[in-house]
Amino acid sequence: MSNTIIIGGGIIGLSLGWQLAKKGINVEILERHIAGRSASWAAAGMLAPQAEMGFEDIELFYLCRKSLDMYPRFVEELYADSGIKVELEKTGCILPGFDRDDAERLRRLYDFREKIGMPVLWLTGSEAREIEPFLSPRCTGAIWIEDDAQINNRLLLDALKTAFQKCGGKLYEEHNVENINITNGKIEGVSVHGKDLKFENIIVAGGAWSKQIPGLPENLQPPVRPVKGQIINLRLNDSCRVTKVVRAPDVYLLPKSDGRLILGASVEEQGYDTDPTAGEIFRLLERGWEAVPSIYDLSIESIDVGLRPGSRDHMPIIGDSEIEGLYFATGHYRNGILLTPVTAFELSDWIASGKKSEALSGFGIERFYKETV
To answer: Using CA of residue 285, residue 291, residue 292, residue 293, what is the dihedral sign?
Structure first.
């Protein structure tokens, strides 16, 4: 089996490393900072392709839906390899509306989802509050999606790190790649800490930093930028026991099994800035309070900021390239946690067998460099 190095130790890099190591491949991960403590850590763990889908996202939706279907197998294998049980929580997702404009927008979303066969229900305001009693009495109607789910992404990261190393993978933190070495259209390895390391395959999974890795040919630098996201972790108590994911206009409220209620998330084009800001935190709290008024008395546990890797078309970049042995798994934007199983299973099978993934067709980096020739 060939040697493979993965640049980036977020949830995508760790899950790919784990699956490749299970297949007997010698795999190492180089992480520039601490594995799993960047965007993957600051995520909410929402697995809601049916709630998040827009009118233009049909191909991405099918990939997200496929990945959600893979999650039971993913967490079962992970438990066997790590000894850490990560529950897939089928909490469902409710999309409430509070005025006429919301109602019209929701009705269009509902009609579109029903047309393509999604299992969605239209609820009156009182029916919505029967499902989630903590919704505002101002709720006039809602969409209910029972199949959407969520997961504890922080526990998932711990399990992946353990499974990867138990399966024989090697993880190197605080290792910044100085150069990707390519000779005659073929991967030769990487340079790290002044040393040249020989590897046959490289997977670029560096998230928002993927474009900055030295040595990539100009036409193969993934068009990925950092998109800042702020979330607020509140501590649930008896005055507010939200149990369903609430996806209100401009904010979501996500109850976690560890007692947190996550409010998120901002979407900001601020480069690599990771400072929390009063304006965005105020906006999230205000919109969250409008949807679920009883959050008013909850204590604030923490505020997290992550940099999501957003590609030019907001779809992931997964697959091979014109350089032999060079692969990409980046640009997952707001769907990194959701798309983890399909990325890990499909790309690891592709690398191990040499057979391209049909599921990943259309998500390769070639869709961007076609625009420049």
So the answer is: positive
Look-up of token digits 């305001």? 125
- CA 62 – CA 76 distance, rounded (Å): 23
Spatial distance between the Cα atoms of 162 and 155, rounded to a whole number of angstroms:
11
DSSP string across 237-267: BTTB---SEEEETTEEEEE-TTSEEEEE---
Q: What are phi and psi of 363, to 5 degrees?
A: -110, 10
What is the distance between the alpha carbons of residues 77 and 299, in angstroms, rounded to a whole number? Answer: 37
Among 180, 274, 185, 290, residue whose Cα is nearest residue 231:
274
Rounded to whole angstroms, the Cα distance separating 317 from 299 reads: 39
Beta bridge partners of 299: 235
pTM: 0.94
Coil vs helix vs strand at 366: helix
Rounded to an integer, what distance in angstroms lies between the CA atom of residue 355 and that of residue 161?
Answer: 27
Q: What's the rounded Cα separation, in Å, for the pair 50 and 65?
A: 8
With contact defined as beta carbons under 8 Å apart, do 28 and 5 qualify? yes
pLDDT in tens, the chain (373 residues): 569 999 999 999 999 999 999 999 999 999 999 999 999 999 999 998 888 777 667 899 999 999 999 999 999 999 999 999 999 999 999 999 999 999 899 999 899 888 888 889 999 999 999 999 999 999 999 999 998 899 999 999 999 999 999 999 999 999 999 999 999 999 999 999 999 999 999 999 999 999 999 999 999 999 999 999 999 999 999 999 999 999 999 999 999 989 999 999 999 999 999 999 999 999 999 999 999 999 999 999 999 999 999 999 999 999 999 999 999 999 999 999 999 999 999 999 999 999 999 999 999 999 997 554 4
Cα 228 from Cα 226, distance rounded (Å): 6
Residues 5 and 30: beta-carbon distance below 8 Å: yes
Angstrom distance (rounded) from CA 331 to CA 205:
9
| Coil vs helix vs strand at 309 | strand
Beta bridge partners of 145: 93
Rg (CA), the chain: 21
Position 244: which residue type?
Answer: K
